[in-house]
What does this fold into?
Amino acid sequence: LPLSVRDRAPLRRWLAASVISVVMCGSGCSDDFSPPSLVETVRVLAVRATPPYLPTSPAETTTIEAKVVGVTPGEPLCYAWGLCLLTTQQDGSFQCLDPELQLNLGTEATAEVRFEQVTTLALQAADYLAAQGLSGTGGPPGGASDGPSSQPVKLLFGIGEKSSFADGCPADLTAFLKVGCEDRERCIIGSKTLRAFTSGLEKHQNPTLTELQVNGDVSADGAVTTVTAATLKLQPAWTPDSIEARPDDGGPKKEQLLMSWFSTAGTFDKQRSFDDIPENELKLSATDGEVTVWVVVRDGSGGVDWIERRVQVQ
It folds into this structure.
């Protein structure tokens, strides 16, 4: 039962006022007894949208990228990206409810999302729901013409080591989902939720981590620092404009930065820290050798950044 142009107009207005926030998980989420900070297998620590909202201008795009860690040295990665509004889970992996509602976005390390792609899928999803007798309003999912959606857009992705696939990297996301992840320590199928909000939110940006001090030493992202202490004192820093004032029901409200900590060895004093007390400690042993430490920062408004440091324990 196709929706009329008049019925679709509220959906277009609602989408035009939408911005993105991010929630991500997938088949790579660990359910063992290791602390969540310990990286032992291929993992996606974060998925970042730049900018962290969907521009409505046809000339602008949102770039999607993932921070993938725990990869076997020298092993190439396979990527596959796609959009879907209506998803389902099967055997712990995300899939599109109907192949007709999925748009493949390529197999590069990054993907580009345009506003018109999401609006096209939204109209297709509305038609699909109407044909199934699941929606009778023809408006945005959730029923309000100007409010946030209760039906988020999903960016599906598959990321895995190339040798984990018998026939090499899948040709696109459809093929990736069909093959699946036989070895879930080397392959991840997950989703990034693109959640819409009301039009009162202004454009904003990702936070920017500038450094991660290790025992007072400041080095470039990815640099190696030699340490002898059993406990590392870690101190992240960010640009002043990383904490933005965001519209709220009661007026402007400043964001709060949340730091999530990860490493290839050792034990953190805390799994998370906040911008008011951001520092952390990592306890290592003399046998740990080279250890990689990552910090992922989120601002609560969809913004994400990360930084990496490596330490050589002597």
Notes: Confidence is low (pLDDT under 50) at residues 1-31, 136-150.
